[in-house]
């Protein structure tokens, strides 16, 4: 028992039998189990309601595919946070407000994404909503402090405040859209969302002022894992813009969350490195489209994304997803290392994440093989 406690402390778990760690485990399991069992029922309802993506030149599906998976992820996420609050309420009033702001912003983003999935909102409308939720976070104290960012000069408050606001908006809007643009191959965004959530969770667990962030990330990670069980190729349901917006926005917002510290600077290094895959993907796509003379690079979809390039080389959606999971996990491990996280914590995170991804992928493949046997 002493050996176990000593190892737990090495990976950032002060008391493995205490209410804090147990509440994180329960939050993760509630999100996982709820989403796991809720998703098939949601799929059935989505089919009846006609909530589906139709086949086209850019999509891989050959028949209508339910696109309401984001709703399932959101519901599992919210239920787990409610359970976590019931088990172990957050006692700092400011953090309660900030978590509620994140949840409200996530709800707005999910609703916007779902409406866009079904009725195709204009890019301007989506951008205005993203600006709105960014401002919602800012007025509740979730804001990047320009003067806390390493390697940049310290400027007077009269300049620092507007620069901080601008950076926060760019952070939220940029990461939200970066994650959304990655959603083109079965299992990619669900898996990357799970990887990033777990890496940020493990990193936040190393700091005493990030308890709320740990709980929120546990809920998101569990919901992503539950969804991935039905989205690994061949997918039974996709998340649509609703799910991609939820994952991108929540990861960007939670990286600003701290119990005592309401502005962040150096703490953004890890999420930026962990999210390097969607950031690099979006950057190269935008630059490429601008070079081709496209004035609105985000409004002209094509097949120049990283996942499309990898898919063209592998000719396998499964291999593409796994490769991008590995890239995301590698970036995550590097980010943790640069943040000063101890090696045992990094290795434990990599092993746990890899095991979870193997488990859900194996279950999806096995279920698909059974479907083929029954239909043969």
From TrEMBL:
It is an enzyme of class 2 (transferase). Its EC number is 2.7.8.-. It is found in: Cell membrane. The chain crosses the membrane at residues 20-39, 68-88, 94-115, 127-146, 158-175, 187-205, 211-230, 242-260, 266-287, 321-338, 344-361. It comes from the Bacteria. One of its GO terms (molecular function) is transferase activity. Its main location: membrane. InterPro entries: Glycosyl_transferase_4 (IPR000715). CDD domains: GT_WecA_like. It is a multi-pass membrane protein. This is MraY family glycosyltransferase. The keyword Transferase applies. Keywords: Cell membrane, Membrane, Transferase, Transmembrane, Transmembrane helix.
């Amino acid at each position: 028992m002493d050996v176990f406690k000593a190892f737990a402390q090495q990976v950032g778990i002060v008391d493995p039998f205490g209410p804090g760690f147990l509440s994180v485990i329960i939050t993760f399991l509630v999100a996982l189990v709820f989403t796991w069992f809720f998703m098939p029922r949601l799929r059935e309802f989505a089919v009846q309601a006609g909530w589906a993506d139709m086949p086209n030149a850019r999509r891989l599906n050959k028949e209508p595919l339910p696109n309401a998976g984001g709703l399932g992820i959101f519901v599992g996420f919210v239920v787990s946070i409610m359970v976590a609050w019931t088990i172990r309420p957050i006692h700092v009033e400011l953090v309660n407000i900030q978590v509620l702001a994140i949840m409200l912003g996530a709800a707005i983003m999910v609703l916007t994404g779902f409406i866009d999935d079904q009725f195709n909102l204009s890019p301007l409308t989506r951008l205005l909503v993203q600006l709105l939720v960014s401002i919602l976070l800012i007025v509740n104290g979730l804001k990047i402090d320009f003067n806390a960012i390493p390697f940049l000069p310290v400027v007077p408050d009269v300049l620092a405040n507007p620069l901080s606001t601008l950076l926060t908006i760019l952070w939220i809007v940029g990461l939200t859209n970066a994650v959304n643009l990655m959603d083109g191959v079965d299992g990619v965004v669900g898996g990357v969302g799970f990887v990033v959530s777990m890496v940020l969770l493990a990193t936040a667990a190393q700091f005493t002022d990030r308890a709320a962030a740990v709980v929120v990330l546990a809920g998101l990670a569990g919901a992503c894992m539950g969804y991935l069980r039905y989205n690994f190729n061949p997918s039974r349901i996709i998340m649509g813009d609703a799910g991609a917006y939820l994952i991108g926005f929540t990861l960007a917002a939670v990286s600003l969350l701290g119990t005592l510290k309401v502005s962040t600077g150096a703490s953004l290094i890890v999420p930026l490195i962990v999210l390097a895959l969607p950031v690099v993907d979006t950057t190269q796509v935008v630059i490429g489209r601008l070079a081709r003379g496209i004035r609105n690079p985000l409004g002209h979809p094509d097949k120049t994304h990283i996942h499309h390039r990898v898919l063209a080389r592998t000719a396998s959606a499964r291999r593409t997803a796994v490769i991008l999971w590995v890239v995301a996990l590698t970036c995550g491990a590097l980010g943790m290392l640069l943040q000063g996280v101890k090696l045992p914590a990094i290795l434990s995170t990599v092993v746990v994440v890899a095991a979870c991804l193997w488990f859900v992928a194996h279950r999806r493949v096995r279920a698909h093989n059974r479907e083929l046997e029954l239909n043969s």
